[in-house]
């Protein structure tokens, strides 16, 4: 059985992702020239984007990882404040932090996380997300770099999961409704 059979439609193809990541990497390389760039990946969703984006960045940079979770919330609903489950390994003082995210949805996660990171005396904190779902935004927050806007549908693939599955799909797609009903 193939996971591709569970996909109703593809929203962003593998080729589109590849081209966009190259574009974002080039732009970030220009914008952060001479700076102290650290790419901060929010696990697990951004792991695929992070792996691709860091190789599209041509200037020296470091990487770090963080695990955060929203309080409450079921699988498909994001709610409440964020809790740091695994903190960064490195010190952010004087660093130019670029948060690497899979999707900016309600914006609740990052609108809570950004001020927490800013308290650590970085030189700057910006956001790079591969997907943006602006129709669902609750918090006043915008990405500084974004890949694709997606409609208000639950999406999977390219790191995004449903019940921890489908992260390894090489494209972004929408699940067939019967998958949720199983
Ligand atoms: P907020 O709402 O805080 O959400 O911007 C951020 C996190 O919620 C998850 N999320 C999704 N995950 N498909 C997913 O697999 C989706 O359509 C989706 N929308 C939100 C995601 O982990 C994101 O980092
Ligand atoms: Mg996530």
Task: Please give a structural write-up.
The chain is an alpha/beta fold and 182 residues long. It has one domain (14-152): Rossmann fold. The protein has helices at 14-31, 47-56, 108-118, 177-181, and strands at 7-12, 37-43, 62-70, 82-86, 96-104, 124-132, 145-149, 155-156, 172-175. A six-stranded mixed β-sheet has the order 4-3-2-5-6-7. Strands 1-9-8 form a three-stranded antiparallel β-sheet. α2 (47-56) links the parallel β2 and β3. α1 (14-31) packs across α2 (47-56). The longest helix is centred in the N-terminal third of the chain and has 18 residues, at 14-31. The protein is globular and about 50 Å long. Magnesium ion is lined by residues 42, 45, 102. It catalyses: IMP + diphosphate = hypoxanthine + 5-phospho-alpha-D-ribose 1-diphosphate; GMP + diphosphate = guanine + 5-phospho-alpha-D-ribose 1-diphosphate. Keywords: Cytoplasm, Glycosyltransferase, Magnesium, Metal-binding, Nucleotide-binding, Purine salvage, Transferase. Belongs to the purine/pyrimidine phosphoribosyltransferase family.
Write the layout of secondary structure elements.
Layout: E1 7-12, H1 14-31, E2 37-43, H2 47-56, E3 62-70, E4 82-86, E5 96-104, H3 108-118, E6 124-132, E7 145-149, E8 155-156, E9 172-175, H4 177-181
Parallel strand pairs: 2-3, 2-5, 5-6, 6-7
Antiparallel strand pairs: 1-9, 3-4, 8-9
Helix pairs in contact: 1-2
The chain binds xanthosine-5'-monophosphate and magnesium ion.
Magnesium ion (MG) binds at residues 42, 45, 102.
